[in-house]
């Protein structure tokens, strides 16, 4: 793939790295069959190949991207099925990360998008905030219809099925929402890992990062992992105080 970066642009190591990745793409299209957004939408711009073209144009122009470009790059799930399928070894993960950072720095998003992305970065990275948000969701359910677009869809996911938004006809389990989401208290079994026994082989101890969202809405996953490993005699040691892994901020282009 031919590129047209200026010499002063290539002096930037990140741009030089992007240029190398872009040149590796031969537009064979093998990646398209592995891309869920392309399979679903059938739009070349929602395929890895199409996105690579848009990323090249955006980085070469070195300015604010168009709304069209941002829309199609935002739809990328970063599943990286394309990277596995690519015969040329294009590092698509690095390209999309660089492009998201460029968008974050140069593109002025609509207010609703900025609120949504702030909510994701601020609330979903803090388990206490998630529990509070789920607890307050039903209180504010009459106002959900006033929210636009994706904010409306996101708010609905946090509402119990018994909410007036759904006609009040649902019969969920206590605290359950449209997507089956419930706020769980911190798991006592994972907060207090057993201390290592005398002579225990520490090479068989496994550390666990609790994460942000999962420990609130699906702690049973880590609990099941702890039980499974315990049957093999492998203690599970939670990393208390480890904090956020940074994945959400990273995928929002904030790093």
Written account of the structure:
It is a single chain. The chain has helices spanning 7-10, 13-24, 36-41, 48-61, 67-74, 81-85, 92-106, 111-122, 127-137, 149-157, 188-191, 214-217, 220-231, 247-251; strands at residues 206-208, 236-238. It is mainly alpha-helical and 255 residues long. The chain folds into three domains: 7-106, Alpha-helical ferredoxin (Fumarate Reductase Iron-sulfur Protein, Chain B, domain 2, Orthogonal Bundle), CATH 1.10.1060.10; 111-166, no CATH class; 188-246, no CATH class. Strands 1-2 form a two-stranded parallel sheet. α2 (13-24) packs antiparallel against α4, α2 packs across α7 (92-106) and α4 crosses α7 (92-106). The model is unreliable at 168-180 (pLDDT under 50).
List keywords for this structure.
single chain; 255 residues; mainly alpha; two-stranded parallel sheet; globular
Concise synopsis of the structure shown:
With 255 residues, this protein is mostly helical. It is built from 14 helices and two strands; from the N terminus they run αααααααααααβααβα.
Helix content percent band: 40-55%
Q: Give the overall average pLDDT.
A: 81
What value does the Rg take, in angstroms?
Answer: 22 Å
Helix and strand sequence = HHHHHHHHHHHEHHEH
Please indicate the count of domains. Answer: 3
How do the strands of the widest beta sheet line up side by side? Answer: 1-2
How many helices in DSSP terms? 14
Number of DSSP E strands: 2
CATH topology of the largest domain: Fumarate Reductase Iron-sulfur Protein, Chain B, domain 2
How far apart, in Å, are the first and last alpha carbons? 28 Å
CATH homologous superfamily descriptor of the largest domain: Alpha-helical ferredoxin
